[in-house]
Amino acid sequence: MRIGLAGLGRIGAFHAETLLALPEVEELVVTDARPEVAAAVVQRLQEAYPTKGVHLAPSAEELLAQQPEGVVVATSTGEHGGWVRRCLAAGVPVFCEKPVAADLAETIELAALAAGSEVPVHVGFQRRLDAGYRRARESVASGELGFVHTIRANTHDQDAPPAAFIATSGGIFRDCSVHDVDAVRFVTGSEVARVYATGANKGEPYIREAGDVDTGAALLTLEDDTLVLMSTTRHNGAGHDVRMEVMGERGTIAVGLDHSLAARSAEPDVAFPHGPQKWSFMERFQPAYEAELAAFLEVAAGTRPSPCTVADALEAFRVAEACEISRHEGRPVGLAEIPTTTSVRTSA
Fold first, then answer.
1. Which residues of the chain have pLDDT under 70?
2. Which residues lie below 8 Å from residue 7, measured CB to CB, with a gap of 6+?
3. Cα–Cα distance between 300 and 234 in angstroms, integer?
4. What CATH code is carried by the domain that includes residue 164?
């Protein structure tokens, strides 16, 4: 297969390596807004994968002119929507890192556009392809846990992103917690009815100056009355800590509870966890990233549906939007307050 890749920053370069390691990918056509970065990455990839074709396209138009069988979008957030539109217009299946757009209005617009197209779009919420989250989903769907009453979900980063990223991130709930929101929807099969969120700052002053918080918490009530306790922070020096606990009447299942857990026990004679910790989201989710790009090749080949549609991304974004409104206004926010489109259907 010939695959296009737009964006060669940290995650884009990571995706390039992952794609070239997949046997189905014979050629990779890449583009980036920074010519010097693109040239350096292409040279490195050509040396590392001499049996694969790695080509540089100076622009989006020239990349699409190479007639790729699918395009992976890993550019800056502001460019995501434009790439999705180009690919839909060209009839090329597209994988787009989350979010598909920087704001709710454009996300709604893209969801409607994708719903009216036969071209598949796969949005990069990689936890849907993580073995632990998939096992948790199975335990809920099978009734293994009985009825689920409480979920704890957290994303705790080791270090805060740079100030330039924070300034354009959209806030901690839209940027970070949105992963937990999508995972909750994926695991439970239920939608969020209302949220109550708050946040605080104890770390980098530039986060406060940007109007954001470095630590956030939210209580989500699902439509089936399951309660979700969600937390996120930019300052977790013990390591990168992403977990979910799903509690039911018959038992509890935990995602991310292994020896890499970024915590230590205060109990005497307890050796768990013995490490080593994981220090970044790419390290924590490397198998899931590999699985999601392998899945996208199947989507592009027409052999499986998208694991995460633009409609799914819209629903997660709406919840994150409600959390930001709740944080700013200090009140519960019902999802009925957040605009959507009634014609958009989410994936099974």
1. 342-348
2. 32, 73, 74, 75, 76, 79
3. 35
4. 3.30.360.10
